[in-house]
Amino acid sequence: MRRRAMIVSLLVSFLMLAGKVGAAYMTGSAAIFSDAVESVIHLFATAFAGFSLWYAATPPDTNHLYGHGKIAYFASGFEGGLILVAALSIIYSAVHDLLVGPELQQLGAGLVVIAALSVVNAGLGWYLIRTGRQHNSLVLVSNGQHVMTDMWTSVGVVGGVGLVWLTDIVWLDPVVAILVACNILWTAGRLIRRSARGLMERADTEATERILDTLNRAMEHELIENFHQVRHRRVNDQVWVEYHLLFPEDMSITEAHDRSHLVEDAVNRLFPKDDVHVTAHLEPVAHDTYHPEDHQEPTDPLRSFEPSS
User: What DSSP string runs through 113-153?
Assistant: First the structure.
């Protein structure tokens, strides 16, 4: 399903590029040119996203023991960087047209082309985001959000160029292009921030609280005596969770292991759409006597766990 969605996105990207470049050449509009530049960038970003989707799905190897999922964050950052370049080039072209004056022609035909392509992009963006969320694929969601940005860019261009067509106020065209570029800059910043958070493995506070709540409930049901050293991280659609579980000293390792698996099953259920990897270290309660700094009071579960910033 993810591969098919990426192929559809790539094919539509070629259609968008051809249509918008043709409309820009036909009309001479800076606003339509800005839309075409965004589509050029989107084509390159989609191609890289397709490669990233394939590479992230390859199994772990001796050089990448935790798999290749982090490339999804590189893809998101790469796409954000390309969008940033597109926005800056649009602003440069629009400012130039404001200074020397744009030369516009055949705006009606250009508007029809851009409006039709906007409808196609709206459907594609919705499809990619829905598929990406269903399969927890950052690559597809990022690509879908880029497509939706492209769609809203086209809607803004249609409105702005439509005003120029109706009023003959030609300076509105580069102004619309600059507004479009500002919207693209916002999207670029969002994608780059998401990429940075993923590469730095910033902990999800909500996930942290859910994991700790599950461990505390395990204590309440007397499956474990206590716990500490809780850590977790996400890489695309994979989640790694680590913790130390404390058991009575006279309990057999077999029973402790069985109880640990019950806790692990509960943690797995917290992430139904993800590939979850849980690592539990089993210890006797007396461990707290020798390592008091590791002890985690159940009354204050967040005291010794700070999500990374």
Answer: HHHHHHHHHHHHHHHHHHHHHHTT-HHHHHHHHHHHHHHHH
Residue with the bigger pLDDT between 95 and 45: it is 95
Q: In this structure, is residue 275 part of a structural domain? A: yes
Query: Containing domain of residue 264, as a range?
Result: 205-294
pLDDT band of 305, cuts 50, 70, 90: very low
Residues 76 and 167 in one domain: yes
Tell whether 171 and 212 lie within a shared domain.
Answer: no
Across 263-268, average pLDDT: 94
Distance CA 74, CA 139 (A): 10
**97, 209: one domain:** no
pLDDT confidence of residue 308: 46
Please report whether residue 308 resides in a domain: no
Q: Which of 163, 179, 199 is the last residue of a domain?
A: 199
Sign of the dihedral defined by the CA atoms of residues 204, 210, 214, 217, in that order: positive
Residues 181-212: tens digit of each pLDDT: 787 788 788 878 878 877 777 888 889 999 99
Q: What is the rounded CA–CA span in Å between residue 53 and residue 5?
A: 11
What residue has token string 């820009």?
Answer: 24
- DSSP-assigned letters across all residues of 148-184: HHHHHHHHHHHHHHHHHHHH--TTHHHHHHHHHHHHH
Report d(CA 204, CA 209) in Å as an integer: 9
Q: What percent of the chain has pLDDT over 90?
A: 20
Q: How far apart are CA 148 and CA 126, in angstroms?
A: 8
Q: In Å, how far are 32, 218, 227, 253, 290 from 250, measured between CA atoms?
A: 75, 19, 17, 9, 18
200 class by beta-carbon count within 10 Å (0-12 exposed, 13-18 middle, 19+ buried):
exposed
Give me the residue label for tokens 């670029």.
188
CA dihedral 252, 258, 259, 265 (to 10 degrees): 160
* 293 DSSP 8-state letter: G
46-57 mean pLDDT: 75
Enter the pTM of the model: 0.59
Res. 30: pLDDT tops 90 = no
